[in-house]
Amino acid sequence: MGLEFLAIAAPIGWVGAWIAGSILYRRKSGKPLFPRAPDNAVFAEAWRSGRSLKNVLTRIGGARNCLLVYVADGALTIVPVFPFNLMFLPETYGLETTIPISDIRVTSLDGLFGKRLLLTIAGLKEQRFELWLRDQQGFRDALEGKSVALIRPTHEKRLDRPRAGWRLNLFRVFAVVWGVGAGAAGLTGLAQDTSFRSHGMIATGRIVGHTGEIGAKNDMGVVQYEVGGRAYTLTSLRGSGIYKIGDLEKVRYLPDDPASAREDDYLGFDFLFACLGSCILVLALTIGRIARVFTRSMNV
Asked: Are residues 49 and 131 in the same domain?
């Protein structure tokens, strides 16, 4: 289980360390982890899209429905909302900035990417941003000083269910299908693991071959084990780059059916799939409420 655990834990640990580093950086730099529009904002929209036109990387890595945009105290602020402000994504793609409104020139664009605003920022080196906003005229008025502080909706009004976009609905469908499938597979596997552990016997197997060409995606190890002097084989969980010919594996089998066996390591993978499937399914069912809570926390 050592190599398999390392193969799973290493990337998870790397991502975790990257996230932790970005949180420490934001706190040290005084950047908000949970950005919020101030009460005196004259314009504020959340879950907006945009991109910096600084270079090829920033053009490709724009933000899709994850920006908080507001105008307050004579400045425009653009910042990704949590958790899209982690892993140094804003710094990499130039998606977090505060600009005096006097330095901004706005141009309307309409094309393959829909109606959007081109922001040209004056300074030592001219910068440009594209923003997709719902109330483009309200944004222009805020930059021109024609707006007053926003009237915040009451708590009850904020709880009104907004109309879900097609992207959110598509994600929900995908998450439900994936969550049900993964959760069912994991729970079914856990039931079988419990049966094998409660009523099964243990044998020591050895990886003696592989199912496909070494290095291919469909290549899996073949485990051979003996029960009562008779040899049996099963396909291992270990794929290309994980198994090694000659490795020993613990195998569990039922006394009345020794040909139907499972590697002992199935338990961890089945538990992982059951947990992931359950978490994704819960997320699919609650993502609308989660989005509303985040929107309220951003004072929008």
From this structure: yes
